[in-house]
Amino acid sequence: MLGSGIIKGLLETARNFFGSFRQPERLVTIEYPEQQRTVPENNRSFPFLVFDRNDPVKGLRCVSCKICEKECPPQCIYIETEKDSRGKPIKHPKVFDIDISVCMSCQICVEVCPFDSIKMDQTYELSQFSRYDALILHKIDLAKSNEYYHQIKPTEAGLVDEQLAAEREAQIAKAKAAAAIKVAPATASPTPKPPSPAPPAKTEVPA
Amino acid sequence: MILLYSSPEALLIQLKSWTVSLAPAAWQPVLSSAISALVILLLFAGIFALTTLVERKGLGRIQNRPGPNRVGPCGLFQPIADGVKSLIKEDIVPAAADRAVHFLAPLVVLAPAALALALIPLGPGLAAVDMDAGLLCFFAVGTASELGAFMAGWASHNKYTILGAMRAIAQMISFELPLVLSTLTVVMLSGTLSLSSIAQQQGSYWFGLPAWNVFTPWGLAGFIIFLIAATAESNRSPFDLPEGESELIGGFMTEYSGFKYAVFFMGEYFGMFAISGLTITLFLGGWNAPFSFLVWIPSFIWFLIKLGLMLAWFIWVRGTLPRVRVDQLMNFCWKMLLPLSLLNILAAIFWHFTASWQFPGAWGLRWAIGFGMIALPFIGISQSGARQKKWGPRIYRYAD
Q1: Would an 8 Å CB–CB cutoff place B316 in contact with chain A?
Q2: Is residue B211 part of a domain?
Q3: pLDDT band at B400 (very low <50, low <70, confident <90, very high)
Q4: CA–CA dist B333, B339 (Å, integer)
Q5: Residue A199 class from Cβ within 10 Å (0-12 exposed, 13-18 middle, 19+ buried)?
Q6: Which of A161, B17, B152, B257 could form a disulfide with B252 if both were Cys (CB 3.0 to 4.6 A apart)?
């Protein structure tokens, strides 16, 4: 009969009306400043620099190789290398600026970094009152601890840590091997016969 | 001056007459009218503010949203924020507009609605204007708001506004007919055009149950027809074609901004209050309590409770039904509501002339016959209309 659909519709809206009071899970709105959506792990906003050993200055993984600066498509990264007292460059950035008004969150800097020192952050509350200086993040703003990295991206950070640990072990092993080579000739030299204890030690070094 | 307490209504009336008596005699009539106008405007402006908030929150809940809850506790100050916002917005008048008419249109919408509110009795003796021909005056005044809508559309000099105004005129004039015809039954049966006498006559109780007009077959049918026509008359969803946000931007209000827009908005809500008040007075027993053991609650409280329920109904309908098409609107008005309201007059005549039936079960028989006189034609019209595809989805013959 004409009008029965209206009654059905009215009942449906009444069910929604009272249901939204009785079942709070019906309300899908996330009331933003108080409630925050949990972002997925792969979410990315702008890059940050990872540091180890609770030392945001000395602990930075960045060695100021400037690969990211060169690769950045919109050229939003600016790096100056630190110099020691004799003017010789050392493996540490003196200035590391990212202009996040220019950055397009492409993650290329992260992909090209050979030292796992630059990663993508998840912060999004970055609005500022100024268009210019406030949106340029300096080294001290960019430096964030490895713990923070683990906190926002546990899987990726775990993998990075494993890889770094493997590299470090490889380096130690390499150093040991090198030391062994150095020691071997030294111990071998007094003996009358000079040839061949060293080469086998070298081949044992893992890749 | 001693206030003699007999009833809360009498207390209010005495308070007013005491205030008026303080003024010099020449000024007393003016002061009396001014006080009445002030009370009406303040009361209904307060209800307006509350309604906008309740409407937004209610619609939100219907759509499973919390609704506005930022301004003040639970968003209670939202109407104040809205008012401040509309006050400080830029008042834009289109370059091609007729400035004088453009300025006058919101007032022409608001003033008749406020005037119509003055005619509604909130309690015995609590009508600002208690006229013998109150109902007639209500419709005469209420029709003027159509002029305001058309003025707004015409003066804005914009194709959307003129389309909205044309729709408003067509819709309001069409729905005026079933609106008036359905009230005619009440006038016939109660024998008066005075709104307070109509409400007074519904004040008796039958074994504790109220003798409201809505509990008679013609009253029930008249109430439903009146409610539908009132929804169309006050431009409420699903008959909000003159506004038609999705198709006409804002209809005749497209070129209005800031406070003029707010005045339009206020006029529409005042119109809704007035027509709700009239529905209550004509069909829902006016200020009378629904049960005889509840008469100790003051009459104006009952009126306001009923008004709140009417407004809740309008909000509920708005949250439920999508906007109808123009052809559906016109078909429904002229081919459904108009014949039914004419038949309803017949049903009222039947009810009136069978009032002398005294045999047992007479009341039930009268009810059944009277109701059948409207219900059977309704089923017939709806089914023949469905066969001829008057309502239901439109078939596009050339656009496939």
Answers
A1: yes
A2: yes
A3: low
A4: 9
A5: exposed
A6: B152
- For residue B317, list chain A residues with Cβ-Cβ distance below 8 A: 10
Say if B83 falls within a structural domain: no
End-to-end Cα separation, chain B, in angstroms: 80
Q: Which residue of B has its CA nearest to A23?
A: B64
* CA pair distance A35, B276, nearest whole angstrom: 40
Q: pLDDT, tens digit, for every residue of B131-185?
A: 888 899 999 888 888 888 889 888 888 888 888 888 888 888 889 899 999 999 9
Confidence of residue B353 (pLDDT cuts 50, 70, 90): confident
Q: Which of B64, B385, B386 sits opposite A16 (nearest CB)?
A: B64
> Can you count the helices (H) and strands (E) in chain B?
15, 2
Domains of chain A, by residue range, sit at 47-152, 163-203
% residues pLDDT > 70 (chain A): 89
Residue B293 has pLDDT above 90, yes or no: no
User: If we measure between CA atoms, which residue out of A41, A40, A62 comes closest to residue A51?
Assistant: A62
What pLDDT, on the 0 to 100 scale, is given for residue B386? 76
CA of B62: which chain A residue's CA is closest?
Answer: A17
Q: Is A30 in CB contact (< 8 Å) with chain B?
A: no
ipTM confidence score? 0.79
> In chain A, which ranges are continuous DSSP H helix?
4-22, 67-71, 108-112, 139-142, 146-152, 154-188, 198-203
Residue B373 placed within a domain: no
Q: Has residue A85 got a pLDDT over 50? A: yes
Instruction: Please check whether residue B158 is in contact with residue B255, taking contact to mean a CB–CB distance below 8 angstroms.
Output: yes
Q: How many structural domains compose chain B?
A: 1
Determine the pLDDT at residue B276. 92
Nearest to B161 by CA among B242, B268, B238: B242
* C-alpha distance from residue A63 to each of A82, A114, A197 (Å): 10, 10, 37
Contact B329, B232 (CB under 8 A): yes
One-letter amino acid of A131: R
Interface of A with B in 155-194 (CB under 8 A): none
Does pLDDT of B221 surpass 60? yes
Contact (CB, 8 A) for B280 and B307: yes
Does any CB of chain B come closer than 8 Å to the CB of residue A36? no
**What sections of B256-399 are H helices per DSSP?**
258-282, 299-320, 326-331, 338-353, 362-387
Identity of residue B366: R
Q: Is B384 on the interface with A (CB under 8 A)?
A: no
Among candidate residues B195, B191, B230, B193, the one with its CA nearest the CA of residue B337:
B230
Please state whether the peptide bond connecting residue B29 to the residue before it is cis, i.e. omega within 30 degrees of 0.
no
Other beta carbons less than 10 A from residue A83's beta carbon: 12
In this prediction the pTM is 0.79
Q: For B287, which DSSP code?
A: T
What class is the A47-152 domain?
alpha beta
Asked if residue B262 belongs to a domain, the reply is: yes
Give the residue numbers spanning the domain of B119: 92-354
Note whether B118 and B128 are within 8 A (CB).
yes
| pLDDT at A205 > cutoff 50 | no
Q: Quick one: pLDDT at residue B390?
A: 67
CB nearest to B386's CB, from A2, A14, A31: A2
